[in-house]
């Protein structure tokens, strides 16, 4: 049996080693190394300016890194692109771009289709199904500029789902969404985990980390710690990550941790 072109079954969804990224020669991500376990929901947390978005973008080759390697299922991102889904930060998207919700979701299928083939009925159906999943089927033909912030976020999640990726990166999917959208996103994350997908989420609300996530990466330019939430999301490591910017408050009898 020729298995030379196959990846070992044990290759981790994501393996980053020695990642350093600088803007104008100033390092904002420094020597970061970690491996993500398969089938987990992982929170990437740290104070404003800690380098969270930059780290995601460097992994995806959207900003250049000074040093470091990225392995995705044991291969390069370029080769594994179709297995990766990315939900960018909402502010980084040009919402005036003249396109409707359904077309945005169909863009998620291009990796499967190649650029030459035009999406057909099957692709459209799949895109409609994912819009339906995020409660946006009625808005399929609405221009994205005419959607609310939470609706735009749902459309981008639908696009990532339509990609049928195995490893997802989401940059603050909960930012500025209402309680219903937050619930919808959490349900989706649960479904992805159920299906064995791995999801790395930049997250700000420390009070929900324990409830939503399995695993956590604590970043402040350097990686302070990473591991299961139970052993890594500790007051000591959070203080180390956030420094004086962290306040601990009591909420419903339980100690909750609040970021900036
Ligand atoms: N294009 C850029 N050019 C120069 N500096 C940048 C650029 N993008 C980000 N930075 C700087 O790099 C640092 C890390 O920014 P980044 O957006 O990665 O942090 P973050 O942890 O995602 O922050 P936040 O939680 O506020 O979104 C910050 O000091 C920021 O000002």
Describe it.
The chain has 260 residues and is an alpha/beta fold. The chain has a domain at 14-96 and 165-242: 3-Layer(aba) Sandwich (Rossmann fold). Helix content is 32%, strand content 26%. The chain has ten helices and eleven strands. Strands 5-6-7-3-8-9 form a six-stranded mixed sheet, with helices on both faces. It has a three-stranded antiparallel sheet with strand order 2-1-4. Strands 10-11 form a two-stranded antiparallel ribbon. A hairpin with a 1-residue loop joins strand 8 (215-220) and strand 9. Helix 3 packs parallel to helix 6 (149-162). The chain is globular, with a radius of gyration of 19 Å. Residues 23, 28, 46, 48-54 line the site of adenosine-5'-triphosphate. Residues 14-246 form the ABC transporter domain. Belongs to the ABC transporter superfamily. GO terms for molecular function: ATP binding; ATP hydrolysis activity. This is Metal ABC transporter ATP-binding protein. Pfam families: ABC_tran (PF00005).
């Amino acid at each position: 049996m020729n298995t030379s072109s196959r990846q070992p079954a044990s290759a981790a969804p994501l393996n980053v080693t020695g990642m350093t990224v600088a803007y104008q020669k100033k390092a904002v991500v420094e020597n970061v190394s970690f491996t993500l376990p398969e089938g987990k929901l992982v929170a990437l947390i740290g104070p404003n300016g800690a380098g969270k978005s930059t780290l995601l973008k460097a992994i995806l080759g959207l900003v250049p890194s000074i040093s470091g390697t990225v392995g995705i299922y044991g291969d390069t991102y370029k080769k594994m692109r179709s297995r990766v889904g990315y939900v960018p930060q909402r502010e980084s998207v040009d919402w005036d771009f003249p396109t409707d919700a359904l077309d945005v979701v169909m863009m998620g299928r291009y990796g499967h289709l190649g650029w030459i083939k035009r999406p057909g009925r099957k692709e459209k159906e799949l895109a409609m199904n994912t819009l339906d999943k995020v409660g946006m089927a009625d808005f399929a033909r609405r221009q994205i500029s005419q959607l609310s912030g939470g609706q735009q976020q749902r459309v981008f999640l639908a696009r990532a789902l339509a990609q049928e990726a195995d490893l997802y990166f989401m940059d603050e999917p909960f930012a500025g969404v209402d309680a219903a959208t937050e619930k919808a996103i959490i349900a989706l994350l649960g479904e992805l985990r159920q299906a064995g997908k791995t999801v790395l989420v930049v997250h700000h609300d420390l009070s929900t980390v324990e409830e939503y996530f399995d695993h956590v990466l604590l970043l402040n330019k350097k990686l302070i710690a990473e591991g299961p939430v139970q052993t890594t999301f500790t007051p000591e490591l959070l203080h180390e990550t956030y420094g004086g910017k962290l306040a601990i408050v009591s909420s419903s009898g339980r100690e909750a941790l609040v970021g900036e």
